[in-house]
């Protein structure tokens, strides 16, 4: 649950070589919905490498077996470069989606991959009747906060020292328009910024089985 | 017990086996359990939740002592504070034999389920007859022990990749709590250097004396004391006690240090201090923060004689003072003095430096302990004395800081880099610390190395803590509720940490009374300006008034908590205040409204009710405004949302000012009618017709909020900036999300998204120039200053408001002049003059 690779990296920045940005065009990225057990090691590898918090295999299976339609992977020339893992369910009388993990590996960030991954999940959640989507992100994770801000998430709460490294988190929420209101939805172009957010699944998310 | 073989969602066919559910993580033999599961799937669910781990360990204590002593984990089991959660899972202890090879798991066969029994024997016919040789737990009536391992093996053979055996209660929480044994990221047991404190001591990790060379011994003692200070600050800042202060092996074995008077006296006072701090925090019940902070199971916080730590500290202090005097004495006297005073250590050149370094550290500990005990005296009786000790603490901290130079020069270790990251004044690594020894005690956290604050940071932390405590000591217990709330709001501006906030809260509320002394109703009647007669009135017994008292107490506790938590709680209690208002209103109508011919007594209670109702509304709007304002401090609003937030703040502040005004007018007229009170006739007569300064103060903020709303709206309407578009929702949804709690409580009535749109969609700069809200704010701030000449905090606030008004007024002019010609004009908002009223910054791109 929590402390990020990012902080670790910042600790020994000098020791690290600057990662060169991968050259590619957006059309080369292929997005795939979770397709079965063969995808699991890819997802686990990405999350393990980017987030220091270890999740047991049960956690991954819990998500991908129950909501395979909400998990997506991004491939570039056969290599898995990003993934999103989500769930949805009843929570205090609201049917809501929850984004559990979002990762894009470093050389591929800033190209809209994370936005595309998470947008696909949110789209499915909306079509499945979710009223809102939530997640947590570190207050210092500017990239993730900007990404979710562009998608319409508001910072609903600040969670004091949410992560073990002492950093606060924001609880972000996206409320879908209720079917009653007829407001038209403006579509915004996805400008930039793919980032990952490291996240620590809160206990209240765990109270429901499905 | 039945475990079904299923995929995670339990959808597939399930073959039922009578298997034990292994809720055990680190029981003897569990490693072998994993081994036999390997052929199937490495991740057979050996489910180890933290809860069940504790439960398991509790059960371990029932086993023969041979097994209990096996692992260092048992410290958990010994803690009486943790009781195993009620669980439907049956715990089946594993049997270990003397050679500690894996012995089959034993399961209890239930007689009441004979069908299962027959299935089982059918499927696993090779099973040996039950009844193990030595069973430590009796099987009980109508049941026998049976070997389940062949059954397990058979079950494993049927599983496919990705399949999982689990119980009904295997949810996400269970999945997240599962540990993979032997994975250093998850298994806290694997990263330890030593299995027990004893092992560490035997290995020489914490020698006593620290060194036979007395100089080295003193130097190392100082390093230990310094590192402990860093640990203590790290603990206060939110890490577990066991991983910080109690990473010190010397602290963990209180009796061991008794031969080393110096170290012993420090260890004692540090344990006693930790205990005092834990007590204040747990008494204050500062909600989620306290959980980790006060967790202290398995730690020796109650060393024998720790309560007498001060007498020992004084004795040691005296000895060292004598040693210091001896070494400073002129040489003629030296011989005589030296005869009865043995020096602290052997190096005469360093005697003075070491004596001084130790003395300031000893004295700091002494005074700090005094501060904590003085602050805890009931009804703030120790505040004055506490201030003296705080001053002494600060003085000693400064001496400690300046001792660093000497200590660095005398350290034998050559170290590189600045002192910045070091946890000691000398820069040396301290002896006798191992954080991994206790990592099993920090139950709900995965094994993580904690970064201990540097020694410099620790001293800074303590300086800030002492400063915050000093502010608390300056608090006057005679305050009105309004002053009290203002005091807390002001205090919170410096973002005090948990320990200081806990002290403040305990000072404000104790035993259900304000300041541990005044009944809540007395405070309410002052705040609501109730007539004198109320004191004996029956209204105090009214159930809603009693509830109201409880709400006031809650409010006081909440405003003392950290801002993140505070805002969440304020958002919730705003509803309670609304409900109590409606209930009081109903009670009021019932009592007075039905009967137009009122007796005197009824007339009195009507007045009381009216006053209380107005005050409850005022307080409700105050809570709502705090809720909105804290959102800025917590960075919950993005610039595209500022417009709606300022609009809402404006609406709430208007209501608040209105209620305060009504209350003030009512109080004044009541005073006049009674025809008494000290009134200097000519002056006060005029005053009655003026708006009270408290309201004008709010008026100034109202102008700023309205001005910012309109400026932001105009920027949006005319320049198309600060708009928020998103693919999935609209501004309406974001409005609902931000103000849901206020809207639910109808604060204010009839205000919703359409009203916001109505008041902002036509905002334009030409109107803003004609009616310049910022100029108004500036004018009011200037006017009202003289009324607050005795209140420096309010004056400072007015100054800030004035600055914001001035800057925004200029920005407004610039935008109007240049804006139409230069569409590339960039406007951003900053909080450089005020924490929640933004200043517009205009730039050409």
* Shape label of chain B: globular
Strand order of the largest sheet of chain B: 2-1-5
State the oligomer: heterodimer
Largest sheet of chain B, in brief, is:
3 strands, antiparallel
Please report the distance between the alpha carbons of the first and last residues of chain B: 72 Å
- Biggest pleated-sheet summary of chain A: 7 strands, mixed
Give the number of DSSP strands of chain A.
Answer: 7
- Structural class, judged by helices and strands of chain A? alpha+beta
The neighbouring-strand order within the major sheet of chain A is 1-2-3-4-5-7-6
**Unreliably modeled segments of chain B:** 1-132, 674-687
Share in helix of chain B: 55-70%
State the main characteristics.
heterodimer, A: 210 residues, alpha+beta, 7-stranded mixed sheet, 27% helix, 26% strand, B: 845 residues, mainly alpha, two-stranded antiparallel ribbon, 56% helix, globular
Task: Please characterize this protein's 3D structure.
The complex is a heterodimer of chains A (210) and B (845). Chain A is an alpha+beta fold. Helices cover 27% and strands 26% of the residues of chain A. Chain A is built from six helices and seven strands. In chain A, strands 1-2-3-4-5-7-6 form a seven-stranded mixed sheet, with helices on both faces. The longest helix of chain A is centred in the middle third of the chain and has 15 residues, at 113-127. The radius of gyration of chain A is 17 Å and the shape is globular. Chain A starts with a helix and ends with a helix. Chain B is mainly alpha-helical and 845 residues long. Chain B has 31 helices and nine strands. Chain B has helices spanning 30-37, 50-60, 65-68, 74-78, 114-123, 149-157, 172-177, 197-202, 214-236, 249-252, 261-284, 288-293, 309-328, 331-340, 348-375, 383-410, 455-473, 481-492, 498-508, 520-527, 543-559, 563-593, 600-633, 642-674, 681-687, 693-719, 731-744, 753-760, 765-770, 773-784, 792-819, and strands at residues 2-6, 16-18, 106-110, 143-147, 164-166, 509-510, 513-514, 825-830, 839-844. In chain B, the strands form four sheets. Chain B has a three-stranded antiparallel sheet with strand order 2-1-5. In chain B, α16 (383-410) runs antiparallel to α17 (455-473). Chain B starts with a strand and ends with a strand. The model of chain B is unreliable at 1-132 and 674-687 (pLDDT under 50).
